[in-house]
Design the sequence.
């Protein structure tokens, strides 16, 4: 089984339960508050490890945040490559509405202070056929992707949060691109071309409750899987759950269809729980889950 290396953000998530997402200038009274582990990178690492893959996280935190490393350790994530930074650990302020939708404000903090030599040392341990997972909440994505590709490591990249320049810099090195429907439209508009015409071997489009789609651009092949209908209480981290579980499936050698089916089921179960990395289910929970 291949290993997974995740270059990604680590955030302290601060959740506020609100009646609805605040409008500009509106002040709302929160009905609840909690703190947990998050960040797209930490979420994806947690998902991949909980899905059974050997997962190494490459990232950075500030001082006095050792609990986030302990939390990742508890989920089975290898944390050797998490560095200490003079910047504070990344933070996310997350408003969660009654219907499960969310609005998020991010502070990059230590996520923007990654050291290239540190990243090089980590990637030097990867093997050909391993998987590198990345998102857009850290620095050094393009540099890390290029290093990984030179070693024969497959690069799985989530174009989120969407950033035109970041996506363009990474595209030449990507094996599998993750986008949701909104990001897909943004990317097509930005590049003025269809997703299927990109020089990216594989594209996965997540469709929320409608499931997911896998595209092999070289063979013009498309595979769809259906979504699962559940009562969502918090959609935060659903896409990260999907990405981590899908990567773990690919690391095991699953077919794209089987990997998507498991990832879709895991994401559906996640949205029935409040929280981010802490709410991502373990594989045995996903296997037992019947919506």
Sequence:
């Amino acid at each position: 089984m291949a290993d997974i290396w995740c270059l990604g953000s680590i955030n302290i998530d601060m959740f506020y339960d609100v009646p609805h997402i605040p409008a500009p200038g509106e002040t709302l009274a929160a009905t609840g508050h909690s703190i947990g582990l998050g960040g797209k990178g930490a979420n994806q690492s947690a998902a991949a490890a909980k899905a059974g893959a050997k997962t190494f996280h490459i990232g950075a935190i500030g001082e006095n945040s050792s609990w986030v490393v302990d939390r990742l350790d508890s989920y089975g994530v290898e944390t050797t490559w998490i560095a200490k930074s003079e910047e504070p650990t990344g933070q996310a302020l997350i408003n969660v509405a009654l219907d499960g939708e969310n609005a998020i404000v991010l502070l990059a903090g230590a996520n923007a202070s990654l050291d290239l030599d540190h990243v090089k040392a980590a990637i030097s341990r990867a093997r050909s056929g391993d998987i590198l997972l990345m998102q857009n909440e850290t620095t050094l994505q393009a540099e890390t992707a290029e290093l990984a590709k030179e070693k024969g490591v497959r690069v799985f990249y989530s174009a989120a949060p969407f950033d035109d320049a970041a996506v363009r810099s990474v595209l030449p090195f990507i094996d599998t691109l993750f986008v949701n429907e909104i990001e897909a439209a943004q990317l097509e508009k930005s590049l003025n071309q269809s997703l299927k015409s990109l020089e990216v071997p594989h594209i996965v489009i997540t469709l929320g409750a409608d499931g997911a789609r896998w595209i092999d651009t070289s063979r013009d092949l498309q595979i769809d899987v259906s979504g699962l209908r559940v009562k969502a209480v918090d959609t935060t981290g659903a896409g990260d759950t999907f990405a981590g579980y899908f990567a773990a499936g690919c690391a095991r050698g699953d077919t794209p269809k089987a990997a998507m089916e498991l990832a879709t089921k895991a994401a559906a179960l996640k949205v029935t729980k409040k929280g981010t990395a802490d709410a991502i289910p373990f594989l045995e929970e996903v296997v037992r889950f019947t919506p």
